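Objective 1.3, modelling of assemblies. Example input:
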Amino acid sequence: MSETIKILIVEDAPADAEICEREVRKALGSCRFQLVETRQQYLSALSEFQPDVILSDYSMPGFDGMSALKLALEYSPETPFIIVTGSVSEDVAAGCMKAGAWDYIIKEHIKRLGPAVVNAMEKRQTLLTKRKAEEEREVAYKALDKALNDSITAMSKIVEMRDPYTSGHQTRVADLSAAIAGELKLPVEHVKYIRIAALIHDIGKIYIPSDILSKPGKLRDMEMQLIRIHAQGSYDILINIEFPWPIAKIAWQHHERLDGSGYPNGLTGDHILLEAKIIAVADVVEAMSSYRPYRPALGIEKALEEISQNRGILYDPAVVDACLKLFSTNGYKLEG
Ligand SMILES: [Fe+2]
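Predicted structure (tokens):
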């Protein structure tokens, strides 16, 4: 510890304060001391002197140790607070320790004060180091999380650059999927990865020639077959990224339907992930509401009619209900 340690003494008896100073100096060498005895002086010292350790008497004519302790904890819980008192009541000592005091020294045993302050300073250093490490971890985690989100957004934009007619599709599907997941009261972390999966669910479209993606009019069977490989394509790309969530599998299943009529694997009911069922509904609602090169926009009413009519047949009933509630009760709107 290279900086001079600052010790705040809360004491109404100058002679006792001097004894405290002497004992602390014996243990720590040179220190700076400030002596206060009223609440007002104490508050000023907390903000201006900014002590590293507080030594407080338990009872004084105009102030008391418990109030000083409470204020110290608000000021900085990492600052050691040691009660130094003439009282020998075990109840008082236990009460102080329970309230957050770091130690309790009886003036009769004042020789204990020096080692107690050294011990408290070491504990404080450990706490400060731990807190700094936690703060650094938090900053690193946020930076990593931002990098992940930026990368996902970039990947999403790459797909949409090749398919300008569906520009914004994945973002709108991601917003709606997250809103449905929220409506289903899924945990925050779960909502977060559903949004990520929805943002890149169509990444496999980069395997499809762009003239097919933007072809006006009805697609031929052969072209339809080509379009359908995108779900498998999304899986093949995303499986190479070690997400802590099943993103590849969700994207793989986003065109599966409850009755097995979907693709690429014709999965049914419980074999389809809930996340994929959510994105499936959001995908259909967004796609039907929007313009496509082969048809005009059908509108949100038609889209909601589609999921209502096929509730429990193609689409998960709870997911459909959540989606309908969003639009009918919560005033949800597809952006852009
Ligand atoms: Fe798709």
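Residues 202, 230, 254-255 surround fe (ii) ion (CB under 6 Å).
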